[in-house]
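[step 3/7] fold_predict: job queued, chain A
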Amino acid sequence: MVKKIHRSFNVLGSIALINFSDKTTLKDKKKFAEEILKKHRNIKTVLEKSENFKGRLRKMQTKHLAGIKNKEVLYKENDCIFRFNIDNTYFSPRLSNERKEVANMIKKDSEVFVMFAGVAPFSIVIAKNSKAKKVYSNEINREANKYGKLNLERNKVKDRVELVNGDIKKIAENFKRKNKKFDYIIMPRPNLKETFLKQAFMLSKKGTKIVYYGFCKVDEVKDLVKMIHQEASMSRKKIKIIGTKHAGEIAPYKIRTRIDISVL
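[step 4/7] structure written:
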């Protein structure tokens, strides 16, 4: 009976995150949390997860249900290790395969710019799994940047990854003044109204590949592609869409879509 009350159950390191229906009582939530601890010895903490992320920094809201009171995670993927706080930083384990696929795209001696880098998972996976010359990792969340610095050291890539902290709009303007362009621009952007493609095109040159993550309904991918062409035109850039990919469902009939763009 208890198993029917929850909708999803994810594991990050030794922490289990659970989504419950609105009608679930606190008593049933705690009962299910205790069952998880008994059945899974590797799990030490059980938290209730809100489906919503707060603000531009995409901070998750969680509540402790059972086990050790801890919200700091040690998570492994793609031969990399990441430490972060669930409530203070954003991290999606569902993008693990995306990170590896993107790393496999990067050609030798390329310079890569990662926007919305969080605690640096894309940046680090690219540095460890490609022959990129250098990766620039941009994030506005100060707490995420603290963990990002620790993660660079933990994964021994601080010589190839440079943290560029701050608002992407200001960072892009600074790079523009220095005439700095990149071979690859990776955009695992938040689900926000603003696209930030203006900044990506500002930092691109002929041959630059942009990996853009957008959000739309299943039948609206063509509209997303059309929007990208319009933004490119506004930035006076000619582009070609290399491909589109369903990169995960975020809600019923709503998906994260990866669009690979080549600047001509």
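[step 5/7] annotate
The mean pLDDT is 92.
Residues 26-39 form the longest helix (14 residues).
exit 0
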